[in-house]
Structures are given as structure tokens and as C-alpha cells.
Amino acid sequence: MNRGFKRFKKQRFSLTLSLAGIVVALLIMAFSFAALTAWILIEAGVFLDTEFLVDALLLLLIVVGVSTIGVFGLILLFGKFPLKPVNQLINEMNRLASGDFRARLHFGKILSKHKTFREIEESFNELAEELENTEMLRSDFVNNFSHEFKTPIVSISGLAKLVNKGNLTDEQKKEYLLAIEEESLRLATMATNVLNLTKVENQTILSEVDKFNLSEQIRTSVLLLENGWAPKNIELILDFDEYEIEANEPLLKQVWINLIDNAIKFSPIGATVSIEIKDLERKMSVCIKNTGAQIPEDKLEKIFNKFYQADESHATKGNGIGLAIVKKIVDLHGGKIDVKSEDNETSFTVVLPKKQPKFKINKQTIK
């Protein structure tokens, strides 16, 4: 660390020397040009009193020489002050390069008033903040991903060992095999979700757009999830008329299944889940609301991150991929999704354009 600091210190001192050298070189060039001009004028006979001119040039040479040495010394002495912002920037960039994303750049009150320095400060600090957030997301992603894949594998392994040992009743065997089947399905579902997420993440243009009945699609999604809401005696309120929309039907179906499944999963027995569709002229709004424990405010911004779960105990079934897929699909459709959670009520509102833009191909460009 000390060697590195000394090396950077030498490099910055060389920068000061370079600056001083440039100034001195400019002074020498200016004097040389003046002397050359005077010599040409003398040779041309413009000046007749050459002795006086030579004395003047000699005096000028002495003044320029003393000034050059003085300026060089002053630059060496005070050069660190104009280069201080450069040194600060280099220091903070080195911190970022070493993985310390808490680095922030502050030039001070005086320099920060200048537009250019203020812009450099804001750009650097925004970059550092984004890198810090990215690092946090990466860490959370790795931790959650490891947990979600490790848990069912450990469960399957443990249950398989118990079955393999024998000395179990038929009822115990049935129970353990059923648990192994459930954990296997959980892994398979997780793998499918990861593939779906990868597919939509790599998709930049929405294809296979058709016009279909949005209301019917949502009702179908509710019926597909009957095994989730029926055992919990959940009251379903579907408050909407018949509406049509232009979208990618299979992708949009994933949105409703994920959101409705989430609402059912986090609702207590006997709770209410409501779905409302509104016509907003050029857009459609779908609100899926459930009663039950609310999501803490500090976790609302993270719930669309991959493998993030608001329930950090992982007591509820899920893998934290569903909402990430929902967010990406909504973005692909040019829509937006908002979430609110207050007064023991959570709602997800998806707003989508009724029609997707038409992409026209210029035939003249195709040869």
C-alpha cells in the first residue's frame, strides 16, 4: 500500500514538473521569437544604433532568465494547488478501481460553485452510487440464488436417505416420497422460471403481437390457479367488463398468473383477492389487490429484483423470479407496474398501452 502511494505521489509530482516545463518552454519560445525578430531587423539595417539594441536585448535576456527561474520555482511550490482537483479525482478513481464503491468526490465549496467541477462531482458520485447498488444487488442475488437452489436439494437428499434406510411404515414412505416429489417440482419450476427470465431479458423487441380478450385471459388465469385459492377459501372479486388489447398473449398471461399467484400465496385463509380492469382511453389498467400482511416500505423497491423475497425467512413458497419476469414483460410492452402496500392491503397495478406501435420496414433499404 505504501509503495503504491509513493508511486502515485511520484507520478503526480512528475505532472507538476511537466506543467512547469510547459510554462518554461513557452517563455523560452517567446524570448527566442523576440530575439530572432530583433536579429532580423538588425541584419536588415532597420536599427542603426546596434550597441544600444544589443544592450537592450542583453537586459531582456537577463530579465527573461530570472523570470523563467522564478516562474519555474513558483510552479513547483504552488503547483499542487491547481492540481488538487486532479489529485482528488485520481484518488477517488483508485478507490473505485480497488472495489471501494463508497468513494465520493467533493471538490469543496469554492470549486463546486463552478459548473464544470459541479458536473464532474455529480457524474462521478452518480457512477459510484450505481456501482455500489449493483454490488449490493449482486451480493443479494448470489445469496438468494444459493439458498433457493440449495434448500430443495438438501431436502431431497435427506428424505432419500431416510427412505433408503428402511424401517419405515407405508404411511411414512408415502409422506417422504410426496415431499421428494414436491421439492423436485420446486426445482423444476425454478429452472423453468430462470429460463423464462433469461428469454425475456434477452428480448428487446416485442414480437407475435395479437389482439385478444384481456378480460377472458385474466379469468382463465384465475381458473388455472384454483388449486391455490380454493383450499384457502379465498373470496375472489372480479370487477370488470369485456376489454380487448394488443399484446403478446403468452407473455402477458405469465404476468397475470404470477401476480394472481402472489396475491393468493400471501393472503391468509378466508381473505379477499380482487381484480379490477379500467379503460384509460389509450391504455388499460389492471389492479390485483389482496388483503394480508403488508410489505415493508424499505423492501418495496427491491421486490422486482431477481431472487429477492420480501419474506427473508423464506417461509413462503417462491423463488423471487416471478416478479422479475413480470417487470421485464411489462417493460417490453411499453407499460409500467406500481406496487402499494399499506393498511394490511397490497396492490399491484399494471398499466399497458391498448395498441402496440407498428414497425414499418422500408423496402428501398432491402436489396
Task: Report on the architecture of this protein.
The chain is built from 11 helices and 7 strands. The chain has 367 residues and is an alpha+beta fold. A 5-stranded mixed beta sheet has the order 2-4-5-7-6, covered by helices on one side. Strand 6 and strand 7 form a beta hairpin. The longest helix is centred in the middle third of the chain and has 51 residues, at 115-165. It is elongated, with a radius of gyration of 36 Å.
Order of neighbouring strands in the sheet with most strands: 2-4-5-7-6
Total helices: the number is 11
* Helix content percent band: 55-70%
Describe the largest sheet.
5 strands, mixed
CATH-derived topology of one domain = Heat Shock Protein 90
Form type: elongated
Order of helices and strands: HHHHHHEHHEEHEEHHEE
DSSP strand tally: 7
Binned strand content: 5-15%
Q: Tell me the CATH superfamily of one domain.
A: Histidine kinase-like ATPase, C-terminal domain
Whole-angstrom Rg = 36 Å
Look at the structure and give the CATH class of one domain: Alpha Beta
Terminus-to-terminus distance: 61 Å
Low confidence ranges: 1-9, 312-316, 360-367
Assembly type of the shown chains? single chain
Any idea what the CATH architecture of one domain is? 2-Layer Sandwich
Q: What is the arithmetic mean of pLDDT?
A: 76
Global structural class: alpha+beta
